[in-house]
């Protein structure tokens, strides 16, 4: 579909300096051969272009279906398990740009919490952390210690068990969360859900690739495409703001 669209996109072909339109398999081969580390750096590069000094990080996870079987068929068929790819994102919630991601297979016995450390650590290497917010799935004293004492940020992660009294709660920072936390800061986490919603609305919630390696790269490219889409919107907003003040 993209190569067919290039036939009409004359100015884009000029910008890309394409003497001829490539065959669609060229894009497939490129996707298969490009280093996944380079794609990760492309995702993180968007936040650098904004000039942000400190990243207000929100972490969340979502699933993408890797089969087109209907929900009814999946539930009725005992021989089939629900298969999906779990995408965990760490985003700058103030500008709604993805900074780092982690992809794994699901269902699995492993909890989303295992993705917290690699995501936060990668983001801290891009820019300094200001605040890190996450939901109760990431409730862990180690996560608080990592953000506050090792990465010099401020964590807001509510305690998972609300009915457990403070004196029975383990961990200094988890007890602090039990006593109360800034709801305004924590509610910024909702923008992670907005990012996920936009990705699924624009690119779908099904993965079309069949190989695990290609499925992972397809999700990475969707995140890159989302960041490009968001960056364009931010530039338009800034341009309109400047024009309104000039006029």
Kindly list the characteristics that best describe this protein.
single chain, 247 residues, alpha/beta, Nucleotidyltransferase, domain 5, 2 domains, globular
Quick overview:
The chain is of the alpha/beta class and 247 residues long.
Please give a structural write-up.
The protein is α/β, with parallel strands linked by helices. A 5-stranded mixed β-sheet has the order 3-2-1-4-5, with helices on both faces. The radius of gyration is 21 Å and the shape is globular. 50% of the residues lie in helices and 17% in strands. It has helices spanning 2-6, 10-16, 24-33, 36-49, 71-76, 116-126, 141-150, 172-179, 183-186, 190-203, 212-246, and strands at residues 54-65, 84-92, 97-106, 128-134, 154-156. The mean pLDDT is 88. The chain has 2 domains: 1-33, no CATH class; 37-246, Nucleotidyltransferase, domain 5 (2-Layer Sandwich).
């Amino acid at each position: 579909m993209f190569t067919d669209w290039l036939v009409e996109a004359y100015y884009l072909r000029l910008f890309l300096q394409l003497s001829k339109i490539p065959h669609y398999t060229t894009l497939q081969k490129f996707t298969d051969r490009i280093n996944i580390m380079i794609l990760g750096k492309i995702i993180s590069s968007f936040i650098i272009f904004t000039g942000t000094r400190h990243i207000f990080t929100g972490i969340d996870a979502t699933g993408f279906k890797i089969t087109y079987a209907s929900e009814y068929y999946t539930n009725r068929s005992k021989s089939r398990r629900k298969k999906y790819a779990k995408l965990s994102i760490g985003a700058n919630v103030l500008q709604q740009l993805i900074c780092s991601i982690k992809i794994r297979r699901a269902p699995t016995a492993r909890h989303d919490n295992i993705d917290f450390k690699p995501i936060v650590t990668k983001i801290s290497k891009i820019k300094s952390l200001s605040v890190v917010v996450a939901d109760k799935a990431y409730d862990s004293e180690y996560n608080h210690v990592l953000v506050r004492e090792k990465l010099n940020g401020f964590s807001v992660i509510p305690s998972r068990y609300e009915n457990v009294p403070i004196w029975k709660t383990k961990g200094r920072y988890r007890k602090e969360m039990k006593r109360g936390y800034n709801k305004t800061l924590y509610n910024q986490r909702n923008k992670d859900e907005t990012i996920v919603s936009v990705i699924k609305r624009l690119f779908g919630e099904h993965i079309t690739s069949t190989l695990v390696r290609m499925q992972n790269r397809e999700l990475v490219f969707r995140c890159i495409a989302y960041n490009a889409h968001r960056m364009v919107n931010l530039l338009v907003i800034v341009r309109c703001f400047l024009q309104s003040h000039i006029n």
